[in-house]
UniProtKB/TrEMBL annotation:
InterPro entries: LigD_pol_dom (IPR014145), NHEJ_LigD (IPR052171), PaeLigD_Pol-like (IPR033651). Residues 34-286 form the DNA ligase D polymerase domain. Gene3D superfamilies: DNA primase, PRIM domain. This is DNA ligase D polymerase domain-containing protein. NCBIfam families: ligD_pol. PANTHER family: BIFUNCTIONAL NON-HOMOLOGOUS END JOINING PROTEIN LIGD.
Amino acid sequence: MVARETTTATSRPQRRRVTLTHPDRLYWPEEGITKEGLADYHAAVWPRIAPFIVGRPLALLRCPTGITGPAFFQKHAWKGMSRHIVPVHDPRDKQGAPLIAIEDLDGLIGLVQSAALEIHPWGATAADWDHPDMITMDLDPGEGVDWAAVIEAAQEVRRRLEDAGLAAFVKTSGGKGLHVVAPLKPRAGWAAVRRFARAVAEGMAADSPDRYVSTIAKAKRRGRILIDWLRNQRGATAVAAYSPRARPGAAVSMPLAWEELGPEIGPAHFTVANAPTRLAATGDPWQDFRSAEVPLRA
């Protein structure tokens, strides 16, 4: 059984030990980022990303020839995968194919070797599959929505989470929007967490129907922000903090301090190229993430 990760931002950096084949393969051609470059990025951010990906079932977006070629999601173990990638068995699906997890930096570099450009973990660990330890609210702007409106939506989600007694943290998605994440003590089950997240989203949509929607239907999303609560159910995933995105620009999903939210930092502002510099120059805005976890109240 994979244990819950306790790595902190002050952990001693680990050295890469996994050998890469074809290290010069371009994963982001326009940016000149190679497989070796992605491995270097992950080694640099390892102490920060580890708590969000180690010991969790993972879904990967794999792009064997980089972002300009074929891409596919992988959530099950596969023949020939790195020995540093760990098969884990869902206790509810004992006869099914094993899912995948990692335990250390070697596992993460094994994902790089497997052309995993995006990492999407469950909101629960493989030590406790049925009790999530975070809530993720994904704010996805429709066509015609400006960035200032997305920031306002994040602040509204923050207020609602805090009114419910939860702490709220924010990060860029690396795409178009923001994620607001609340750490939980893993006591409530998936059904309770799902109901809570849905109530937050539907409450915002009911109070401001001209600004927000809580349904996926694209026809209703033009000029509005989708408050996507569906990440909060068993088997669902959301892109990890510090994970790159397999899109032009090589943006990463970057944790922010609330006071950093503003027009100067857009949704794709931080990239594989500039994120390590930011992390070396600033403190960790999510350093209190785990210490802020509380049980979800009924």
